[in-house]
Amino acid sequence: MYVTTVISPFSDVVLFSQNSVASDERGSFVELYREVEFECVIPKIKFVQENVSESHGGVFRGLHYQNPHPQGKLVRVLCGSVLDIFVDLRESSPTFGMAGSVFLSSINKCLWIPPGFAHGFYVPRETTKFSYKLTDYYKPEAEHCLLWNDPLLSSVRKILKDWNIVEPTVSYKDTHGKTWNDCEKFA
């Protein structure tokens, strides 16, 4: 059974926690995903692709999105921990331009980020394995990157400052993302 928490002020970003972990002398077991329960909270979602990335401590990945072909993402940490960051790019949304974050660690939590958001994460310490189910296929021609440290993204910069993230390891693509003024947004 899921316990859900809406990440305020975003009405459609949802943290799922499974409230039952079976543990004994051998280790533990948790059911990570059950479609029928997920659909009670987020209806009419079909996942078509699942990816796993591995990142070392100090790495920041993002802020990525696709337009067209936006992807909803169900993200979870398999091993380690991340500070997950998301930015609403939907011009019709009351949270347009706002960023949010959630600290995720391994075992029994996942985060739903709907289509229309840029997404990224920071790995604070140990090597981390990160999984994400997607509602649309990866299409290189539709991929975009919002510059993670754009001075106009004050809500992202506040999150980074609060976590003392100053000079993370970032890919070439991520250091050359588009600024807020130049990035593709959603209607």
Q: What can you see in these coordinates?
A:
The protein is mainly beta and 187 residues long. It has a domain at 48-175: Jelly Rolls, CATH 2.60.120.10. Helix content is 11%, strand content 39%. The chain is built from 3 helices and 13 strands; from the N terminus they run E-E-E-E-H-E-E-E-E-E-E-E-E-E-H-H. The chain has helices at residues 35-41, 154-162, 172-175; strands at 2-6, 14-18, 22-24, 27-29, 49-55, 60-66, 73-79, 81-88, 99-105, 109-113, 117-122, 128-134, 143-145. The protein has a 6-stranded antiparallel β-sheet, with helices on one face. A 5-stranded antiparallel β-sheet has the order 9-8-11-6-13, covered by helices on one side. A two-stranded antiparallel sheet has the order 3-4. The longest helix is centred in the last third of the chain and has 9 residues, at 154-162. It is globular and about 50 Å long. The mean pLDDT is 93.
